[in-house]
Amino acid sequence: MESQKPVKTLSRTLITASLLLLAIAGYYGWELQAAYRYTIDRVIPQESAAPYPLTVSSLTANQQAALLKIEDPNFYHHSGIDLKTPGAGITTITQALVKKIYFERFTPGIAKIKQTLLARFVLDPLMSKEKQLRRFINTVYLGPNAKDFEQAAHHYFNRSFDEISDDQFLALVAMIIAPETFNINKHPARNKLRVARLKHVINGDYEPKGLFDLYYGRVDRETLQNLPPLSYFESYYQ
């Protein structure tokens, strides 16, 4: 009789775990279904009618190539998520859009699972890459007075977007990962160093060493304290 107790305990544990997994699967299944319907009924129609100041063609070929090389190297080939491409990090352009579209408040952690599922099974299948990129350049946060690339061009350079130089464009791209930390006006030296490193990557002179190689070199202690959590790994630069 005693030998049967561990078996019964194991059986109850397996049943409990199975029920928990079914509940989790059911929850995310319901969330995905609701988001799918919401995207078809609301997101896509609103996106088509959005009066954005920029289109994808507002970017020159060099600007588009530079933006994708830094922000999402495999953008046109992945299905919303990319955990393989060196230098991609764990947030694609699609996932960045998901955070803004489907979350009132995004808290890193468990929300990352939902963000990833929505990117893979809802937004990427329903919104073309062209529309995703258009939305991104018109909604990317570059500071309190710069909610997109057009506003950022006016705010930082007192020019319209189509008047800024490629170097000025890269100065804006340098801010995307941490707008305050690499702010053009507040921290020009940091921004300038990051732009120089971006150029090495874009020109092929530097190959990211792994998925989380997002800074392409060491950063100083003060800069490190103001970077997004789990975005900098000094082991790449030993």
Automatic annotation (TrEMBL):
Pathway: Cell wall biogenesis; peptidoglycan biosynthesis. Residues 54-197 form the Glycosyl transferase family domain. It comes from the Bacteria. Pfam families: Transgly. GO terms for cellular component: outer membrane-bounded periplasmic space. Keywords: Membrane, Transferase, Transmembrane, Transmembrane helix. One of its GO terms (molecular function) is peptidoglycan glycosyltransferase activity. InterPro entries: Glyco_trans_51 (IPR001264), Glycosyltr_51/Transpeptidase (IPR050396), Lysozyme-like_dom_sf (IPR023346), PBP_transglycosylase (IPR036950). Gene3D superfamilies: Biosynthetic peptidoglycan transglycosylase-like. GO terms for biological process: peptidoglycan biosynthetic process. The chain crosses the membrane at residues 12-30. This is Transglycosylase domain-containing protein. It comes from Candidatus Thiodiazotropha lotti. The lineage of its organism: Bacteria, Pseudomonadati, Pseudomonadota, Gammaproteobacteria, Chromatiales.
